[in-house]
Specification:
Elements lengths: L5 H4 L47 H26 L13 H10 L5 E3 L5 H6 L8 H5 L8 H4 L10 H16 L5 E6 L6 H12 L4 E7 L2 E2 L2 E2 L11 H5 L3 E5 L3 H16 L5 E6 L18 H8 L3 H11 L5 H23 L19 H23 L1
Parallel strand pairs: 1-2, 2-3, 3-7, 6-7
Antiparallel strand pairs: 4-5
Length: 388
């Protein structure tokens, strides 16, 4: 990971000059697909109700459970970083609905290309959450087999996975598969050339790919208004495919819209851009201090839209979950936290020289040179110890 400390890099601003994110560009009135209001009231959508019409109470409770356990796992990882057990962590706090809704919309044979923050999607794909932590602890370079769950390794190079997804989608289309591909990226990534190229290629080759942009309002310390002068979903129009803005804190709406987009892809109708309008409630990563660049009031305004509270209100008011369900889930959440702590602390340190083995299949003179330098560096500590 090469994410720098924003606190160290950015000039300090006084409280009076803090910016607020996501001001709507003048004249635009973006349509937001919503099935659950922030208070948890179900609202009708002529276009998207069909995609959640057959959902059972058990599945609804399942969506809630996914969000609660993902949030718990994420909080545990943040604590582990603070205790020195992880080098870094990128929290998904606030983005649970966007990730669980879209993740649960995927089919087993679909293929997912994540960024570094898609812990909820990984959960939906069946990747054991403890496998996500090895890279952040620095003991491996990935932690899971991408082909076991059709969930690619985390990608740190912003936006590059949209090209990988497009190429993959073009490939499966040539194979005649009826599965689809989904690529996750952020509002900041939308400014990358790779994303523009992915949009162009996927459109002209009619690739079965869904571009799922979590607009969490910030790219480290840059607000979305520095990335675009039009709502992000409207960019799709210029490339010739549909774009939809969905309430990213509404798990039902995210499920419905992503199902719709994946089905379009499967039917051979090409790419879709889904902009999940949400908010990064925490820091960019554990190396960042958002109080340096954004106002507390902004976070407070989003707290009332919390994805988990809204789903809980809906389940309770519609009588689809009782107190016993919530109590059992709390116990399950505690157990998950305990397991995550135990597994992380027990992760063995890798052989220090193993990193030189994975760069080239048949070795390389430059790598040999680097290995020798590293060996000399390691040996220098032994000498120091002896000298003292
Ligand atoms: C090509 C590239 N440029 C810069 C960076 C440093 N960097 C890491 S995260 C990030 C911001 C990404 O913001 P966004 O796409 O909105 O995703 P978010 O972190 O908000 O989920 C940047 C600039 C990088 N990893 N890769
Ligand atoms: Mg962002």
């Amino acid at each position: 990971m090469t994410v720098e400390s924003t606190a160290a890099r950015k000039p300090r601003r006084s409280a009076g000059t803090k910016r607020t994110a996501a001001k709507k560009p003048p004249g635009s009135q973006p349509d937001l697909v919503q099935l659950l209001t922030p208070e948890g009231r179900r609202v009708e959508s002529a276009e998207y109700d069909a995609y959640v019409a057959d959902i059972t109470p058990e599945e609804l409770r399942g969506l809630y459970r996914d969000m609660v356990l993902t949030r718990r796992f994420d909080a545990e990882a943040t604590s582990l970083q603070r205790q020195g057990e992880l080098g870094l962590w990128a929290s998904l706090l606030g983005q649970e609905a966007a990730q669980i809704g879209s993740g649960r919309a995927t089919r087993e044979d679909d293929y997912v290309f994540p960024t570094y923050r898609e812990h909820g999607v990984a959960w939906c794909r069946g990747v054991d959450p403890t496998n996500l932590l090895g890279m952040f602890r620095g003991v491996n370079n990935g932690g899971w087999d991408p082909n076991s769950n059709n969930f690619h390794l985390y990608t740190i190079v912003i936006g590059s996975q949209t090209l990988h997804a497009t190429g993959y989608a073009m490939g499966i289309a040539k194979d005649g598969a009826d599965s689809a591909v989904i690529a996750y990226f952020g509002d900041g990534a939308s400014s990358q050339g790779d994303v523009a190229e992915a949009f162009t290629f996927s459109a002209v080759y009619n690739a079965p790919v869904v571009f799922f942009c979590q607009n969490n309002q910030w790219a480290i310390s840059e607000p979305t208004e520095r990335q675009t002068r039009v709502p992000l979903y409207q960019r799709a129009q210029g490339y010739g495919f549909p774009g939809v803005r969905v309430d990213g804190n509404d798990v039902l709406a995210c499920l419905a819209v992503t199902k719709w987009a994946l089905e379009r892809a499967r039917r051979g109708e090409g790419p879709t851009l889904v902009e999940a309008y949400t908010y990064r409630m925490g820091a960019h990563t554990t190396s960042d201090d958002p109080t340096k660049y954004r106002a507390d009031e902004e976070r407070e305004a989003w707290e009332v839209k919390d994805p988990i509270l809204r789903m809980r209100a809906y389940l309770e008011e519609s009588g689809q979950a009782d107190e016993a369900f919530f109590t059992e889930l709390e116990a399950e959440s505690e157990a998950l936290g305990k397991r995550v702590r135990e597994v992380v602390r027990a992760m063995p340190d890798p052989d220090r020289f193993a990193m030189f083995e994975n760069a080239y299949a048949d070795g390389h003179a430059l790598v040999d040179e680097e290995r020798a330098q590293f060996a000399a560096y390691q040996a220098s500590f032994a000498d120091e110890g002896e000298g003292k």
